[in-house]
Amino acid sequence: MAPQEPFGTSAAQPHAGAVRVRLRPTLQSDIPFVLSLEQDPDNLPDITPWERTQHEAAIRFPDFRHFVIEAGADFEATGFAILIGCRSPHQALELKRMVVWHKGQGTGRAALRVLKRIAFDDLGAHRFWLDVKSLNSRARALYEREGFAVEGTLRDAVRVGDRTPSGYDSLIVMSMLTGEFAARRAAALELPA
């Protein structure tokens, strides 16, 4: 099967050294790459990995969008993202997961901006939301800088072993509404339409 056209491209920041990313639909042949990212010791503390069959179902199920994140001059595979609720009658889409290989290089920020454009412009979201482990300070900071508002906390929602005294971590629920996205776009903080 030939690769499908990428969904969008983005620069993380509007300057010459910005990270270029594009998202393309995940193929069955990409599943080993996705699973390797989830099992990477640097990523495991921050996510709850899925089984292969869950990723395969997400590729096929119309309510999901499963993307490979490609970055750099040659657009090499560097991460993946999953959206859920793409057919929600409530126009509420969830960023279920975003994992990038090399952190701190702007790839996650650039991919998140493409995902926001997909959610609001292409899929007609009214609300774009996510949850993030409270221990994942890097991701929380990124989502806050990118305009997501904290809605609340699901206390001790996930087991994390010995990473906390209780063995549990809380999930921070964050979201952005279409009006907030439009205001950020008007202030040139988002990708153009």
Strands, helices and their partners?
Layout: E1 8-11, E2 20-25, H1 31-39, H2 52-60, E3 64-71, E4 76-84, E5 92-100, H3 107-122, E6 127-133, H4 137-145, E7 149-159, E8 168-177, H5 178-186
Parallel strand pairs: 5-6
Antiparallel strand pairs: 1-2, 2-3, 3-4, 4-5, 6-8, 7-8
Fold and architecture overview:
- There is one protein chain.
- Strands 1-2-3-4-5-6-8-7 form an eight-stranded mixed β-sheet, with helices on both faces.
- The protein is globular.
- Mean pLDDT is 92; it is low at 1-5 and 11-16.
- Helix content is 27%, strand content 33%.
- It has helices at 31-39, 52-60, 107-122, 137-145, 178-186; strands at 8-11, 20-25, 64-71, 76-84, 92-100, 127-133, 149-159, 168-177.
- The longest helix has 16 residues, at 107-122.
* Overall residue-averaged pLDDT value: 92
- Going by CATH, the architecture would be 3-Layer(aba) Sandwich
SSE succession: EEHHEEEHEHEEH
Report strand %: 25-35%
| pLDDT < 50 runs, ≥5 residues | 1-5, 11-16
SSE-based structural type: alpha+beta
In CATH, the topology is named: Aminopeptidase
What is the top-level CATH class?
Alpha Beta
Characteristics:
alpha+beta, Aminopeptidase, 8 strands, disordered N terminus
Task: Give the structure's gist in a few sentences.
The protein has helices at 31-39, 52-60, 107-122, 137-145, 178-186, and strands at residues 8-11, 20-25, 64-71, 76-84, 92-100, 127-133, 149-159, 168-177. With 193 residues, it is α+β, with helices and mostly antiparallel strands.
